[in-house]
Amino acid sequence: MAARSKLLTWNEVELWRVDLAVHDASLWDLLSEDERERSGQFLQRRDRDSFIQRRGWLRVTLGEMIGIPPESLLFERSSAGKLRITGQPLEFSVTSSFDIALFAISWSSAVGIDIEREDGGSPIDIVLPSGRRIQSVQEWTQYEAIVKAQGDGISRIDPDDSRFELFNFVPQEGYFASVARPRC
Predict the structure, then answer these.
(1) Nearest CA to 49 among 18, 83, 84, 16?
(2) For every one of its 184 residues, what pLDDT tens digit does the chain have, with 9 covering 90 and above?
(3) Can you tell me the distance from the alpha carbon of 155 to that of 89, in angstroms, rounded to the nearest whole number?
(4) Distance between CA atoms of 172 and 154, rounded to whole angstroms?
(5) With contact defined as beta carbons under 8 Å apart, do 179 and 91 qualify?
(6) What region, left, alpha or beta, does residue 11 occupy, with left being phi > 0 and alpha being psi -120 to 50 degrees?
(7) Number of Cβ within a 10 Å radius of residue 102
(8) Which 3-state string (H, E, C) describes the chain?
(9) Which of 25, 36, 81, 144 has the greatest number of C-beta atoms within 10 Å?
């Protein structure tokens, strides 16, 4: 299996999958100095390697879509911390769980994505400040995808689901993922 593959396109959102267990040492050369420094802050080698692979493949994918070399991409963060490309209208979201990373990329709207590994039936029971209960891994991925799509970070802990379209999928057996984008 290739390290990176396009899964599908949903409502003008491209969904990509990266196998983080497939190590490509050349991705290191694509990272900025800040990204290299950040990778050095991970205590576990597995986490450091995962970050390098995830960010490197993100650079490759976005560079191909924009038509510029991946190492030339400049990233910035919004005031809420959402990563974006300086001077480009392309919206994207990144998530990972264990050895899988997913990218959701859109030219037309904000987007959020989340993946979680199903934990063999361990119960989830999270109560949000509004009183809303989240009781499944799939509900949690939907919630996280919406939070990422709205781009406000945790400052809006209980987003209004009705303002978003959701797409749920299984990127690999044992995992659930959700993508969110604002309704048109």
Answers:
(1) 18
(2) 579 999 999 989 999 999 999 999 999 999 999 999 999 999 999 999 999 999 999 999 999 999 999 999 999 988 888 899 999 999 999 999 999 999 999 999 999 999 998 876 566 777 777 777 787 888 888 888 988 998 876 555 566 678 899 999 999 998 999 999 998 7
(3) 23
(4) 28
(5) no
(6) left
(7) 23
(8) CCCEEEEEEECCEEEEEEECCCCCHHHHHHCCHHHHHHHCCCCCHHHHHHHHHHHHHHHHHHHHHHCCCHHHCCEEECCCCCEEECCCCCEEEEEEECCEEEEEEECCCCCEEEEEECCCCCCCCEECCCCCEECCHHHHHHHHHHHHHHCCHHHCCCCCHHHEEEEEECCCCCEEEEEEEECC
(9) 144
Residue 89's identity, in one-letter code, is P
Hey, what are 25's tokens? Answer: 């040492």
Which tokens in the block code for residue 179?
Answer: 């993508």
**Distance between CA 83 and CA 49 in Å, rounded?**
20
Read off the tokens for 40: 């050095």
Output 77-85 pairs: Cβ under 8 A, ≥24 positions apart.
78/151, 80/151, 80/152, 80/153, 80/155, 81/153, 82/148, 82/151, 82/153
